[in-house]
Design a protein that fits this description.
The protein has 4 helices and no strands. The chain has helices at residues 23-49, 54-76, 79-105, 126-140. The mean pLDDT is 87.
Length: 142
């Protein structure tokens, strides 16, 4: 006779919707704020000042798309959207680390800041911490 394995108390039961419950609500809210802020910033920069810093402004637009994808995927909370959220947030982490390092290494290529330049310094380093928290939350709720 075998008994069913007891659930691991450190994990939420396999429920895709768990990403939008508890602390997940705060995560969705913060991602939503960043999606809105990055989209607005990139839109204004590209529309008005694109020739001043095209690389920086295009990177802001990329960040905006990734924040939007992560927000919607975390909020939808299905099996497929969890995969989308994981991919978007992993790309976000790679982006903030790469752009952050590049903005210090070659500052002349960043005459104007992006969401991810200097590891998100202009946003209180939230862009650096947010994908780490997002990936940890996705792992915790898998």
């Amino acid at each position: 006779m075998s008994t069913p394995a007891e659930p691991d108390p450190g994990r939420v039961a396999h429920d895709p919707a768990a990403t939008k419950r508890g602390p997940g609500r705060i995560l969705v809210l913060v991602y939503g704020i960043f999606a809105l802020a990055a989209t607005a910033r990139a839109g204004v920069q590209i529309a008005i000042q694109f020739s001043d810093a095209p690389i920086a402004y295009l990177l802001s637009a990329v960040a905006a798309v990734i924040y939007c994808a992560a927000t919607f995927a975390l909020a939808k909370a299905t099996v497929v959207s969890r995969r989308v959220a994981t991919i978007a947030i992993a790309i976000e982490l790679i982006g903030v680390l790469g752009v952050g390092a590049f903005s210090y290494a070659v500052p002349e290529d960043f005459p104007d800041a992006t969401v991810w330049s200097h590891f998100g310094q202009g946003y209180g380093f939230v862009p650096l911490v947010l994908p780490i928290l997002g990936l940890l939350w996705l792992r915790r709720t898998r």
